[in-house]
Amino acid sequence: MTGFININKAAGVSSAREVAVVKRLTGSPCGHMGTLDPMAVGVLPVGIGNACRLFDYFLTKRKTYHATFRFGKDYDTLDTTGTIVAEGGAVPSMDDIRAVLPSLVGDVMQVPPRYSARSVGGRRGYAMARAGEDFTLPPKKVSIYSIEAVSRRSETEYDFIIECGGGTYIRSICRDMAKMLSTHAAMSALVRTASGPFGIEDAVTSQSLDADNINSHIIPVQSVLPFGEAHIDGAEQKKLLNGLSAATQLADGTYKIFLGDGSFYGLGLAQDGRFKVKTKLC
After folding, report:
1. CATH architecture of 3-61+197-222
2. CA 110 to chain CA mean position, Å
3. How far apart are CA 235 and CA 150, in angstroms?
4. pTM
5. From residue 34, how far is each of 55, 75, 119, 154 by CA, in Å?
6. What are 38-66's pLDDT values in tens digits?
7. Do 3-61+197-222 and 227-280 show the same overall fold?
8. Of 114, 152, 174, 266, which sits most exposed with the smallest number of CB within 10 A?
């Protein structure tokens, strides 16, 4: 079994728990394409079987979030599930916030939250933070494409629409924004509305899945891969399926491979007039 389930992750559960539901129902190895914190909800693409081989491809894709930031207090986790470590900060105006947004956009070196899965010396940040250890997580280059302040939710909270690349921590954006505004803030809500080709409008909750309906929710791998098609048969097909390369007139690049019987096989790479299998998916 190969494909994707576009899960609408529930609040208060781990991404691993949602993956476990799909794994139990399909009986196949599964993995998520970009974790969400327990407090967050929204799009969590889960790869089934050989689709997990596309992890690196989907992890780097553009993601869209609807985030809520609460100003006036700092929390050790950078979200409101943690412990308050500072308070009394001013709540900025919408104009103040919009004035600093351009400085947060672009390719930036972002320091991950201490309470995160980022590792130092082979140990997870959250494990060291919970143990009260003193450590520093190195910054990582991330791409933040846009941040829009869309509304004031309450006296202390503002809503934002954020588009960014994989590996970006929304909690860190909140921390950095507060620092620019000389105040305190923490993320109080987060919804991922899109992850690559997967949107929240098509997502399903894991609670709605069962053994009778799960097959109807599996998205074929070939339908979400934005590559051209390479149709092969005969001697060329035999060469490729035996691990050899074949002559091609295709332009250099990655292609979806379809065999002579019309079935989807995987991804192939065309380079310098030769074509070979890159990733077997079905």
Report:
1. 2-Layer Sandwich (3.30)
2. 16
3. 58
4. 0.91
5. 8, 24, 16, 30
6. 999 999 999 999 999 988 888 778 999 99
7. no
8. 152
